[in-house]
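Sequence only, no structure available. Ideas?
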Amino acid sequence: MSTFSKLTPEQFQQIGAEFDAIRNRVRADLGERDATYIRTLIKRQRQLEIGGRIMLMIPPAWPLGVAALGVSKILDNMEIGHNVMHGQYDFMGDAALNSQKFDWDSADTAKNWKLTHNYEHHTYTNVLNKDHDIGYGLLRMSEEQKWEPRFLANVPLTVILHTFFQHFVAVQNLKVEDVLIYKTKTKAQLKEDFKPVWQKMRKQLAKDYVFFPLLGGPMAPFVFVGNVAANLMRNVWACAVIFNGHFPEEVEQFPESVIENETRGQWYVRQLLGSANFSGGKLMHIMSGNLSFQIEHHLFPDLPAHRYAEISPEVRAICEKFGLPYNTGSFMRQTLSTWKRIVKLSFPSRTPAVRPLVTVDAVNDAAPAYKLAA
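Reply:
I predicted one. C-alpha cells follow.
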C-alpha cells in the first residue's frame, strides 16, 4: 500500500490549505513582471515567424527558415496559446491576451480546446472515462482499459499521433471513436460537430500550404515543404512534451469513484499523482511552455507558467512532508518510460484492482480547485 493511501481527511485538508496558500500568494503578486514576460515572448515569436517565412524563400537560408518557423509555432502553441487560453494573463485586462478571445496557430478551435483541455482534462485529470487525454480515444494507455486487438497498433498509432498532433487535437472533442467503434454517436451528429473544426482546419491548411507558398512565387515549392517541416517539428515536439508529462510509468490513473465527494486536498493529490516533470535549462522550459513543470501546471493551471520554476521547490517540500511522490527526471528518462508503457499496453495484461484514492467517508471541504468552462 502506498503512502498516499494512508493520508487522513485532516492531512488532505492541510495539503489543500498549503497549496491554496501558494496559489493565493502568487496571484496576489502578479503584475508588470508577468505582463512584460508574455509581451516580450510574443514579440520574439513574431520576429521568428516573419524571419522564418522570409528565409524559406532564400535557398541558402532555407534550413534556418524551417528552424525559425518551427520554433515560432512551438512558442505560439506552448508558451503563448496554451497558457493564455488557460486564463493565466486575464489579470492584465488586455483584450489581445484574454482567454475567452485568444486564438492560436493550430488546427483546433479555441472553444473546443478549452472544453476538452481546460475543463475536462484539468477537472478530471487521469480519471478513466472522464479524461479523454488518456489515449485520445486512439491508444491504450491504462491497464484498466480493456484490451482490444486494435491496440496491437499502439506503437505505430503513437507515431502517427505525434506526426499529425495538431489535427488529432482538433478532432479530439468530436470523439470519433464513439461513431467508429462504440456506436454511441451518429454520423449525422459527427458531421454537425465537425463543421466548426473543418472551418478552422481549412483556414490553417490554406494559410500554410496555399497563401504563403503563392507569396513565394517561383520559390513556392521551398515554402510549401518548409511549412510541412515546421508543422512536423511543432507537432512532434508538442506531443512528446505532453506525453512526458502524463504517461511515464509512475504516473497514476484513477477510477471514477475517486471524484465522488472529492475534496480540494484530494483534487490536489490526484494532480500530483497524475503528473510528471522533466528537468532542463531555461530554454527547455520556455520551449515546452513550462510544461516541463507538469506537476505545478496541474496544481495551478491558471498561474503564469513562467512562475512554476520558482514554486517547484515549495511543491516538492510539501510532497516530502506528506510522503507523496514528486515524479521528475531527465527528458530522455521520461521519454523512455513513456514508450515502455506504450509498448507494454499494446498487449493484453491482467487488470489490477484499482485502489481508491481515499475512503468514501472523507469530508468534502471544497469543490475541485480548477474548473474553467469553455
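The mean pLDDT is 91.
Hope that gets you unstuck.
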